[in-house]
Amino acid sequence: MDNSEIRKDIHRVEIVPDVSSLKKEYYRKETVWHRDWKLAFPPSFREVAFYDAANSGIHRADIFTPSGYTIEFQNSPITLAELNSREAFYPNLIWVLNGKKFKGFKILKHLPDVDDPKLKDYEFCHSDHLSMVRKTELIQEVPHPKILNFYHPELQGVKFTSNLYSFCWKQPHSVWYLATAKIIVDLGGHFLYELKQRKQLNGNYAYLKMLKRKTFIDWHTPPET
């Protein structure tokens, strides 16, 4: 995640100054995980409500930062319609998901840099075992492309990173693979994992990028003066 990215503004809305009654109702329903995350940010960032004149409704951001980023903490699965609705409304949205509730989710192995020029002619296999196939064989529609591991002479010498990981998710909430906003998975502890995808001919390859929880919070919290 890079905080230098161009920020887009929320259009056709205005901030609602007093939503205290909405907050009280919402706090009764939210989980401890949800509340603890919001408490990591200054009070003025929390539960910022926007009136959407176009749809005559109110949108309430879990966190809205002075730099224009919206952070939504999601403890349960959502529908594709809800995903699209929120992503359409908030142009600088970041999802933080409670990964401790994911079933069959497991971090596997360190990965090389997926954009390493040495790997441009190869595609990652969609398997728990870290391996690749030649892109030319996919283009030629070879029925059974040769599977190469990183001991193969063609891939030997490719360096591995310390912050990129493969993972398996046996019972995935597939809607998250369709998100266009950034997705951060919280598995507990001091580290978070950004869910990323490498575009491939054989289907996008999903992987994780590790970052410190404190770093993520600091990125979106201005220093005290």
Question: Can you summarize this structure?
Answer:
With 225 residues, the chain is α+β, with helices and mostly antiparallel strands.
- Written as H for each helix and E for each strand, in order along the chain, the element string is EHHEEEHEEEEHEEEEH
Count of DSSP helices?
Answer: 5
Q: How many distinct beta strands?
A: 12
- Please state how the strands of the largest beta sheet are arranged side by side: 1-2-3-4-5-10-11-12-9-6
- Percent of sequence in beta strands: 25-35%
Radius of gyration: 20 Å
Question: Which structural class fits the helix and strand makeup?
Answer: alpha+beta
- Write down the overall geometry: elongated
Distance between the termini: 25 Å
Topology:
Elements: E1 13-16, H1 20-29, H2 32-38, E2 46-52, E3 57-64, E4 70-74, H3 80-89, E5 93-98, E6 105-112, E7 122-124, E8 132-134, H4 135-139, E9 160-169, E10 182-186, E11 191-198, E12 205-212, H5 213-219
Parallel strand pairs: 4-5, 5-10
Antiparallel strand pairs: 1-2, 2-3, 3-4, 6-9, 7-8, 9-12, 10-11, 11-12
